[in-house]
Design goal:
0% of the residues lie in helices and 52% in strands. The chain is mainly β and 109 residues long.
Length: 109
């Protein structure tokens, strides 16, 4: 495969099982090699967060396990397993996982 990586090819697997939560850390695993589409699995330990950031393209957050808070401007959105939220390109936002979380992040440009 040229564009996809770190994905099962021999048999199906649960997406959430491809990455493990590690206490006190935010773990990431790139799943694509494209300048126009970045797919990343993320695992947040309890209370971990990523401070304000702004991406080059539209970004989708899809929660696989646990819960995630996404702060955009003055609003805070809480997502749980199965929920998704899109953040427009060049929009400053922050994410936090008070009780830990696994999610898929896709950024398109």
């Amino acid at each position: 495969m040229v564009l996809l990586r770190n994905l099962p090819t021999q048999q199906p697997e649960k997406l959430a099982q491809l990455i493990a939560v590690q206490p006190g850390r935010v773990v990431s695993m790139a799943m694509s090699k494209s300048e126009h589409c970045q797919m990343t699995l993320l695992a947040f330990g309890d209370g971990e967060s990523v401070s304000e950031e702004c991406y080059f393209g539209d970004t989708l957050y899809y929660v696989l396990e646990g819960g995630l808070s996404v702060s955009i401007e003055h609003a805070v959105h809480t997502l749980y397993a199965g929920d998704c939220l899109a953040v427009p390109a060049r929009t400053t936002h922050a994410v936090a996982a008070p009780d830990g979380c696994k999610l898929l992040q896709i950024t398109l440009s």
